[in-house]
Every structure is written in structure tokens, then in C-alpha cells.
Amino acid sequence: MPTNTLPPLEECTCLAVRQAARHVTQFYDRHLAPVGLRTTQFSILARLRRHGAMTINALAEEMVMDRTTLGRNILPLERDGLISIKPGRADRRSKELRLTDAGLERLRAGYQGWRDAQKGFAAAFGNERTVGLRALLHEVAATDLPSEGAAAG
User: Fold this and answer.
1) Which tens digits make up the pLDDT trace of 86-123?
2) pTM: predicted TM-score of the whole model, two decimal places
3) What CATH code would you report for 20-123?
């Protein structure tokens, strides 16, 4: 297909969302770096704090991540003693993640960096727009998108 018939990249919703996500993630990562956490790791610890022990599959679903990506993100958390991974209580074949005392301490240490990132983003983007953006992104994540076959039709 000749390049002059391709749609402009500016029209690609996926590219725009991914670029924005990387930009914001890098901003939050800089604020969390002093306590040795990355944004995804902070989110995992916060989910476990909020929900208690969870299976890997349940956490992956909750975070809208595939299991493999979550697996790569939990390895350093387990290595550093911030989470523990044990056989599931209901199904011994499943693995349950639990926040450790060290993980809770690291999460608490990260809250100030997270709050600073929240404030910095709102200051740069505008508080009202930030609240609206969050609501819109929650809607996007909750939207049932059509399957591949339905989209082509």
C-alpha cells in the first residue's frame, strides 16, 4: 500500500493513548524513584493493600494487564520482600499475592511521591480537566469494544 494512502498517525487513537500513558508514567516514575518504586509496582502494592490477598489472575484482571506482564512486574517486588507469593487458599494450584510488612512500608513511603505527581499533573493540565480525564479514561477502560470481526463489518 503506498504511504500516501495511509491515514495520518495523528488519527490513531491507540498511538495517542499509548504516548500519553508513557508520558504520564514517566512523570510518576520520576516522583516514585526516590523510594525505589515504579508506577506499576506502586499500583500493585496499592491494590493489594486495598483488596488484601489476591490471585495473580484476579490482580491481572483488576489492573487490566495480561498475566505475563503482571508476572514480570511482580518478580522484583517478591525479590525485594515487598510481596509474598503463596499457593491459593481456595485452589492450591493458583498463586496468591500478599503485601508484606516491608511492602506496606514502601507503599507508605511512596505516597508522598504519588501525591506530588498528582498535584504536579493537575497543576500542568488543570484540576477540572484532570478530573474529567480520569473519568473519561475509566469509561474507556470499562467499555466493551467490538471483537475483531465485528469491527471490520
Assistant:
1) 987 777 778 899 999 999 999 999 999 999 999 999 99
2) 0.85
3) 1.10.10.10
